[in-house]
Structures are given as C-alpha cells and as structure tokens.
Amino acid sequence: MDFVTLGMFIIDEIYYQPPRKPDLDVMGGAGMYAALGARLFRPPPSASGIGWILHEGHDFPLHIKSTIDTWKTTCEFIQTSERETTRARNTYGSIGFRDFHYLTDKIRLDENSLTPTQLTSKSYHLICSAQRCRDIIDGILARREAEVKTETDTKIRHLLTQAPVFVWEPVPASCKPSELEECLNALRFVDVFSPNLEEFGSLLGISIDLDKPSGWPELRQRCEELIEPTHSPHRATAVIRLGEKGCYVAQPGRQYFRLPAYYEPEAPSTAIDSREGDRREPADRSQKSIGRVVDPTGGGNAFLGGFAIGLQHSEQANMREAAAYGTVAASFAIEQIGVPTLGLSPSGGETWNGVSVEGRLKEYNRRLLEVGI
Prior knowledge:
Elements: E1 3-5, E2 10-15, E3 23-28, H1 30-39, E4 50-57, H2 62-71, E5 74-80, E6 87-93, E7 96-102, E8 123-128, H3 130-150, H4 154-161, E9 165-170, H5 180-186, E10 192-193, H6 197-204, H7 215-227, E11 237-241, E12 247-251, E13 255-259, E14 272-274, E15 277-279, H8 299-311, H9 319-333, E16 342-344, E17 350-352, H10 357-370
Parallel strand pairs: 1-4, 1-8, 2-6, 4-5, 8-9, 9-10, 10-11
Antiparallel strand pairs: 2-3, 6-7, 11-12, 12-13, 14-15, 16-17
C-alpha cells in the first residue's frame, strides 16, 4: 500500500444563522480528508493502495457508503451496530465559526486497527498527541517486525522490512509549551511534522504574525530552533500549514521554502482554528461555485495525504514536489461543503469537480515557475 491514515471518519452536521437550513450527513473527519488527498493522485487500479478505517454505526447513511465505494480505496469498514456512527456538530454565526462538539462517543484508531494489508504501507498519517504518536509508531514497527518472522511471501516480507514514512499532525490540544519536550522526543521518530501556524505558535508559547515584516524571519528561526539540533540522528521535516498563505517547509540542513496556496486570497481574511486544520468562513457559504474557497474544513488534512503521495513520486523524496501535491490536494477539498465530485472526462480520464488532478498539478507548477519558485 502507498498510504494509510489513522485519522477518524466523522459525519458532520453544519448549522448556520437562520434562515439558512443546516447541512446534514456531511462526510468529514481528519482520516477521510487525508485519504481523499492521497486518493486524488491514485486513480484505479492504484486507488486500492490508499487505506483508511471507518467505524460504521447502525445509522450509517447509504449515500455516504456509495460515495466511498466509488473511490475504490481500501477502506476497512468496522461494523459497530450497537452504536451510532461518530457524529459532530459545527455551528456558525454571523462572523464565522463558533462551535464544534461531538454528538456521539468517538473511537480512536491505533496500530491494532490496521489490517495485515495496511500494515505493509509505505506511509502513515497520524493525528494525535506526541506521546500517542510515539506509542503508535512503536506499535506499527513491532507488528511489522512480528509479521516478517512468519510471512512466507517474499514480496510482502520486503515491504514489511522497508522503513515507512510517518507524517504526524499534532492535535490542537497537545500544542502547548508544557508538551514541547514530548514533541521534541517524537520528532526523532517521524519524518514529517505538520502543525498549522496557530498550533505551531501555541506549542512554542508565541504568536507569529506573517503580515508583519518580522513574521517570516521569525518563522524560519523558530523552525530552525525546533528541528536543527545536531544531537538527533533522525531529524523531521517541519511542514507548517498556513491556510490561505500556503505552506512553509523546513528541511533540516537542506532547505527552507514557502509555496503559495492554490487559491490565493484576494483580500485579507481571518483564520479560525478548528479541530482538524484551518477553517475560514467564506463571505457566503450558501454559494457552492467551483473555483473558489467555499469551506476550508479538511484542507490541511487533504494537504498531508497529497504530500505523502508526492514524497513517493521521486526516489529522492523531493519536498518541493510533495508540497505541490499537497497544495493541489487541498484545493479540491475546499471547493465545496464535504467532498468533491468524482467523474469522467469525455476522453475517459478521471476528474474531480470536472477538473483533471494531473492537469491542475501541471498548471500549479507552471505558476510556480513563472514566479521563480
């Protein structure tokens, strides 16, 4: 497999200011969006190399099951008929996002949730605290080591002995100065560390304003202080997700760079943190036109799914290329409420919202070249 996420699937209920009616049974959750971001770059038959896990309650909507089936991913449905599917309520007010809370109990995933096939993955997406990150990584590696001892298939044995890439997205609640030491310890075991800007600042106990002249130099300095210590033989790459400002990649000892978002803002807007990445309230959420940001929920998660696939595109794990993949993945996630629409072009090629993913990636890379990035 190419990619497996241990993020959750959530059914969202989105409530607005009257008289706007709520959107119910909306596909959501960090795991779903990360799987989507990876899936965009893996049309069938490669789509089966994208793995995720979903707890299916007795109330699971059939239309969501049908949508997931069209993706052709390896989604492990765990039947939990004694409970409802994990649900959450998002409430919006006149000035944007106001509240998020779970409506049902949530079921977290760990290394024991993985199927034998998912255990062979080239990369894993984790969204959790630093201590839990280390525990899950230890568990995955231990399970892979145990499987090698009993596996007779040479190809599978080879996959199990290869070091997987771990992409760690810290949960907002763990991004505080008291967790910094645990975070530094976890960085020795992950390949990519990706908080959003607010989470990164909260972890360090500071606020970084990128609209000020001092903002970008400070961001680089803080990244250097976090990931450059020479005492660690394994140094993670920090990928700071900046919402409408794109992303900032800090690769220790090699390079520091920023890529712009696919949809760059026409005017300043206010970023409002949510449970899984950046959320910004568009001026009018009732508009669902493709070609602009409608709902940035899940954009950060989709970015990391695309990023993980981009890392596999070249043998040298090109971070710039991976960041471009992530940026394009995020663009598809934020064009609508929920997920983009999968379809076919007249020539039979796969499209999402009527657009070729490969074509959008080429167009984005062309834009980067035009501005010298």
